[in-house]
Write a structure and sequence with these properties.
With 142 residues, the chain is mainly beta. 13% of the residues lie in helices and 50% in strands. The protein is built from one helix and nine strands; from the N terminus they run αβββββββββ.
Length: 142
């Protein structure tokens, strides 16, 4: 119940934000069935398939925001609490070109595990990316 409430509220916020969107605003959503959900080199789905979906928004000014949800399944262990079966991420940021070949963005990310048994599983990150064309990316996250 808590998961559907969180997703419903999040999508409601995006629906209200999009009600006055200008024609140049960009909205897109997606649904993916992945053979494995790997994040930073570690399987989040115990090397099993994962259903994923997202909703992204970008504004011509450089502002962007989005939601991402995925099915997770960490291997069971006696050393930590069960993180649950779903991950819901939200992000907001700003991006700009920097000359002809470069662009950059800065973003705030929130990672939520709504049905986790752990008390401290949710966390946030602040990230910065520098892109060179579509060839290379330097990224740092705190």
């Amino acid at each position: 119940m808590r998961t559907s409430l969180l997703l419903g509220r999040s999508l409601g916020v995006f629906a209200v934000a999009g009600a006055g969107a200008a024609p140049a605003d960009d909205w897109h959503g997606y649904v993916t069935v992945a053979s494995d959900y790997v994040f930073r080199g570690v399987s989040q789905s115990d090397e099993q398939p994962s259903l994923q979906g997202g909703l992204d928004y970008s504004h011509p000014s450089g502002f962007f925001a989005g939601l991402f949800a995925a099915g997770i399944d960490y291997p069971e262990t006696t050393f930590r609490a069960d993180p649950g079966t779903i991950e819901v991420d939200a992000y907001v940021g700003y991006t700009r070109p920097a000359g002809r070949d470069f662009s950059w963005n800065v973003a705030f990310y929130h990672y939520e595990f709504p049905d986790s048994e752990a008390l401290d599983k949710n966390y946030q990150e602040l990230g910065f990316d520098l892109y060179y064309r579509d060839v290379a990316r330097f990224s740092t996250t705190y």
